[in-house]
Each structure stands twice: as structure tokens, then as C-alpha cells.
Amino acid sequence: MHTEQWCWHAHERWDRPLPATPDRNIDLLLIFGTTAALDNTELIASLRRSFPEALLFGCSSAGEIHDVRVYDHTLVATAVSFETTRIHGEKVSLAEGLSSRRAGQDLARALTADDLAHVLVLSDGLNVNGSELIAGLLETLPQGVSLSGGLASDAENLGHTLVLFDDTTARRHVGAVGLYGDRLRVGSGSLGGWDPFGPERKITRSDGNVLYELDGQPALDLYKKYLGERAAELPESALLFPLSLHNKEGVRGLVRTVLAIDEEAGSLIFAGDVPEGARAKLMKANFERLIDGAMGAARISTSTSTETTPALALLISCVGRKLVLQQRIEEEVEAVRDVLGERPALTGFYSLGEISPFTPDGRCELHNQTMTVTTFAEA
Questions:
Q1: Residue 16: its pLDDT value, please?
Q2: How confident is the model at residue 361 (pLDDT cuts 50, 70, 90)?
């Protein structure tokens, strides 16, 4: 397994020249950048000319990860060539009324094969229920196939997000890449680092990813009460105050981020499901614990494979973490490098949702406000 990376800056152009002659050995080109960069048809065309056989796959972001640097207003391209692993990609559009769950089912059916080992999924971040997307994938994929990925972002603007699949950049799309073969080794880990505050409340009325009532009171009113002056900045300020969920079965808590609000209904719209009967608490940032969470996610991602060293690590972290850490944002990426060592190429993006199990052998979930790390190697 071999990787190479390039970074395009809006004013400085490429940090180093693309291949002078077409490189036909690249299987997968992971691409993360701003919506403007992904909409730059000549920029994407230049990558296609340089890597004519590669599957171009990526999405818009709120920050691009290149090694231990976190950039804004760039495009990061990571070329991957495999020794024995083969890949196949599929995409679906959510624009024709296709439900998030059905989108997951359709992608899983299209990718399923006897030697399917892992699925990497990237989705529009604003027009999808991430929990339902994952449910559709998991109920249709063969047993034992791992899953990871994330929801596209466009910084804190929450305007529109894009998915790039081959030569097409589009809104309201979900793309997925299947990786096939018995020599592929994939590990995933996800951790947060936020502190709960305020009383725990019961979700008394919700519908999928829409929260209407907490303890019988309008959810938006309660949320505004706790945000105080920052309530005027909703929904953007909600990225700094996620919600921690604990369901009635006692399953490990998930974190949910507000994507939008409905003043008339008094509701909050989240990136994933907020089920009735679950217990919820507001959360706020703890700087040191956020960095420790990134380090812990990296450790978990390598906990089940000791015979191979990762060649590639995909880091997907939440835009809310970036807003909190600000100038310290690169510390969480450096923490991952400290754990994984110098060999693996690091790439990734800041998202509106992270798709990963807590541990490699756990159930895949939609997370918000976490750092997720997925490592790839070939034995």
C-alpha cells in the first residue's frame, strides 16, 4: 500500500507539482476541500488528468487535514495505491425523495460481495439523517463488514455541502467505496472529550432527528435558556453546545449536534436520531479532554492489529471541536501522529457528523463532536 499527498492553496496553488505524466497506478484519490474548491471544475479536471484510473472520492469540509496541519480554504488530495485490495464505488442521490435509510440500503446492496471488508461512506451533511443512513447500511451489509466515514460540512455557515464522486460534485448525494480482499486491515476508533453540565432531562417528544420536547417543555426554549446571549447566534452557536444522549437500555452515550432550528415548532433538528425516552444533557468544551479524546481514538484504531503498521489514517473530526480549539486545533492532529508514529499519511476533514464504532469490534454509530480515526494497512 502506497500513499502520496498534495495540497492546493487558493493563492499559492499546489504545494508541489502534480505528476508530469499520468499516473495510472493510483486506485483511490481521497479529496477534501472547501465548497469553492470542489466546485472548481478545472481543479478537479487537473486531478483527473494526473490520475486517470483513480476513483476520485471526497467531500466539502470545514477544515482540511494534511499531515499534522489543519488548513482552511484549501483542497487536500491523497493518492492511494493498493497491492492486493480492490475497490468499487457507488453513489445515490437524496434529491428525488429517497429516504436516508433507503439510501444506505441501496448502497450496501450495490457494494456487497463475498470479499467485501470495509465500506467508506461520505454524505451530504445537511439533507440526511445520519442515523438512518447507517441503519440502512448495517442492516444490508454482510456480517463482519466494517464501516466508517462522515458527513460533509461547509464550515459553520451551514449553507450547503458537497460530495465528490469520480468527476461529479453534487449536493444531496451519498457516496460509498467498498474495499475488498482478505489482506486489508482496517481499524476505527472514536472519542469526544466534552463535559456535561446542567440537569439531565428526558426526551418526551421527538420524531427521528427532530427534538420537540424535553421534560414536557419546548426543546428550543430550554436550549435558548442555557445558551443565554449566544442564543441569538443559533444555529451556529449550537456547535459549541452539543447534546449527550443515554438511552433507556443504558447503551453508551452518543453526542448530537444541532443543525437547524424551527422557531414556529419550537424544535431542534439534529444530525442524527434523538429517540423518545432517552436522557439528554447539554455539554461544553474541555480543552485538554478534547486533545486526549483524539489521542484515545488513535489508540483504539490500532488496538486490534499488531502485525501491520498503518499506511494511511483518515481523521474525521467535528467542526464544533474546531470552533472550540481555534488556534490549538492542530494539537488534536499532532496527538494522533504521536500515537500512530511517522509512517502513516494523515488526511481528513472537519465534518457535521462522524461515522464510526467506538471501538473496532463495536457497532457503528453516528457521532457528533468526536474525533474518529480509521487506519488502513495491507498485511
A1: 94
A2: confident
pTM of the shown model = 0.88
User: Could you tell me if 257 and 238 are in contact, meaning their C-beta atoms sit under 8 angstroms apart?
Assistant: yes
CA distance 255 to 118: 24
- 32: nearest Cα among 114, 144, 152, 197: 152
Q: What is the DSSP letter of 154?
A: B
Q: What is the pLDDT of residue 141?
A: 97
Residue 37's φ and ψ, nearest 5 degrees, are -65, -40
Q: What is the DSSP string of 217-236?
A: EEHHHHHHHHHGGGGGGTTG
Using alpha carbons, select from 292, 294, 290, 305 the residue that is nearest to residue 361: 305
Exposed/middle/buried for residue 253 (C-beta within 10 Å: 0-12, 13-18, 19+): middle
Q: Which residue has 449566544 as its cell numbers? A: 230
Q: State how far the Cα of 117 lies from the Cα of 142, in Å rounded to an integer.
A: 9
DSSP-H helix ranges across the chain: 35-38, 41-50, 100-111, 130-140, 219-227, 287-301, 319-325, 330-340
Buried b or exposed e, range 279-295, using 16+ CB within 10 angstroms: bbbbbebeeeebbbbbb
Cell of 252: 453508551
E strand intervals along 171-249 = 173-180, 184-191, 194-207, 210-214, 217-218, 243-246
Q: Match 442524527 to its residue by C-alpha cell.
A: 272
Q: Which of 194, 205, 178 minimizes the C-alpha distance to 244? A: 194
Map grid coordinates 478545472 to a residue: 42
List beta partners, residue 287.
Answer: none
Phi, psi of 120 (to 5 degrees): -105, 120
Q: What is the largest CA-CA distance in the chain?
A: 64
